[in-house]
Amino acid sequence: QINEAAAVVFSVPSYACQRRTTLQNHNTVLTEALSLLAENAELNEEDGRAIAFRRSEAVLKALPKAVTNLADLRGLPCLGEHSLKIIKASRKGCDVLKDGVSSEVETTRQSDRYKALKVLTGIFGVGAKTADRWIKMGISTLHQLQASGETLNQAQQAGLEHYEDLNQPVAKAEADAIGDVVQKVVLSVLPGALITLIGGFRRGKPTGHDVDFLITHPEEGREVGLLPKVASLLKSQGFLLYQKTTRNSYLESDDGPARLSSNMDRFERCFSIFKLEMNPGTTRSGTPRSSSRTESQSDDHSPQTPGGVHENGLDSRRRSWRAVRVDLVVSPISQFAFALLGWTGSKLFEREMRRWAGHEKAMSLSSHALYDTKQRRYLRAASEEEIFAHLGLEYIPPSERNA
Ligand code: CTP
Ligand code: MN
Ligand code: MN
Ligand code: MN
């Protein structure tokens, strides 16, 4: 079964931050299978399993061509027993891995619990814990949630109200349109401010689940307290359907940046739902309105939004606007490079970079700073390139951080 002669030898370093991972993926069948199992583990808060699947997925994403032979996998890092089993199952009964199906993946995909977790965590403001609590109460659809009389917080209410829109991918053109609005408002509050598109769009992704912006100002300190003003201006101009602004808590934290939990940061930030006006005739995201979500599969053909129609009384297809999740983050210029690096992602790339820093360099990396444990000092950086250099890593540009 293992064809030694035809085996391709891939040389892949073990940390994702040592690799160049573009959006061109030659192993989508395998990576989608592993990604589903990772997502399922995340939704069930099985963090160790989730990370193991994410690492395997990322190794396959980094390969320069499709895996066609099990021997191709020899010597690859991060492929644990379970991931290998999935990969093998995915090719069972066929010459190539292409049309394989792993029964574990299919069983998971079709399980009631997975489907319910997906639907419920698809509500903005609902995480794995809340979804699990609801499922244990017998709530697994949006209708059941509404009928349950459960108290929803403001984020969840907004999430439910804009459920359909928020589960539609956001196109780059929509991100740019929002960027124009944000830029105008930010500059009116703080002239000279710098606004950068971050997250998946900075990595070159054509779509995203939200739009992320990082804001700073060349003069340290001028950025303090910016977001409450920006948020209230955006709100008064009718651009915000929901917002929650949190002030910077970095300086007052007593645990110090080096001890911040690995993926938390303390920047001033605003999590919002943006109201994006669309040109007449523009199809939203250019994607079909129906999706494969559980709610749409009910046989009464009712719309996915629980109320049936939007609060403005129009069918979503005839509205002139859509809701989009937007994250705004503000960093002082002295921390800008760290914030930029930390908020560009991908999430796995970031996690691997912090792991590399800790395990290989005895350093502690966060979105605020880089601390050298041996020298007992913070290492300054004015650019992402300098951070990679401090860490002894080859510079990887955003478009190659799609691990
Ligand atoms: N991030 C973070 N702290 C948060 C939320 C996000 O540091 N509380 C970071 C993530 O680690 C990631 C980046 O911000 O590097 C963007 O996060 P997110 O928007 O969730 O993901 P994207 O990569 O932008 O993917 P998508 O297109 O789905 O939005
Ligand atoms: Mn994003
Ligand atoms: Mn995401
Ligand atoms: Mn985000």
UniProtKB/TrEMBL annotation:
<feature type="binding site">
    <location>
        <position position="212"/>
    </location>
    <ligand>
        <name>Mg(2+)</name>
    </ligand>
</feature>
<dbReference type="GO" id="GO:0006303">
    <property type="term" value="P:double-strand break repair via nonhomologous end joining"/>
</dbReference>
<keyword id="KW-0539">Nucleus</keyword>
<feature type="region of interest" description="Disordered">
    <location>
        <begin position="278"/>
        <end position="316"/>
    </location>
</feature>
<keyword id="KW-0780">Terminal addition</keyword>
<feature type="active site" description="Nucleophile; Schiff-base intermediate with DNA; for 5'-dRP lyase activity">
    <location>
        <position position="92"/>
    </location>
</feature>
<keyword id="KW-0548">Nucleotidyltransferase</keyword>
<dbReference type="GO" id="GO:0003677">
    <property type="term" value="F:DNA binding"/>
</dbReference>
<comment type="similarity">
    <text>Belongs to the DNA polymerase type-X family.</text>
</comment>
<dbReference type="GO" id="GO:0006304">
    <property type="term" value="P:DNA modification"/>
</dbReference>
<feature type="compositionally biased region" description="Low complexity">
    <location>
        <begin position="280"/>
        <end position="294"/>
    </location>
</feature>
<dbReference type="GO" id="GO:0003912">
    <property type="term" value="F:DNA nucleotidylexotransferase activity"/>
</dbReference>
<feature type="binding site">
    <location>
        <position position="327"/>
    </location>
    <ligand>
        <name>Mg(2+)</name>
    </ligand>
</feature>
<protein>
    <recommendedName>
        <fullName>DNA-directed DNA/RNA polymerase mu</fullName>
        <ecNumber>2.7.7.7</ecNumber>
    </recommendedName>
</protein>
<keyword id="KW-0808">Transferase</keyword>
<dbReference type="GO" id="GO:0046872">
    <property type="term" value="F:metal ion binding"/>
</dbReference>
<dbReference type="GO" id="GO:0005634">
    <property type="term" value="C:nucleus"/>
</dbReference>
<comment type="function">
    <text>Template-independent DNA polymerase which catalyzes the random addition of deoxynucleoside 5'-triphosphate to the 3'-end of a DNA initiator. One of the in vivo functions of this enzyme is the addition of nucleotides at the junction (N region) of rearranged Ig heavy chain and T-cell receptor gene segments during the maturation of B- and T-cells.</text>
</comment>
<keyword id="KW-0460">Magnesium</keyword>
<dbReference type="GO" id="GO:0003887">
    <property type="term" value="F:DNA-directed DNA polymerase activity"/>
</dbReference>
<feature type="binding site">
    <location>
        <position position="210"/>
    </location>
    <ligand>
        <name>Mg(2+)</name>
    </ligand>
</feature>
<comment type="function">
    <text>Gap-filling polymerase involved in repair of DNA double-strand breaks by non-homologous end joining (NHEJ).</text>
</comment>
<keyword id="KW-0479">Metal-binding</keyword>
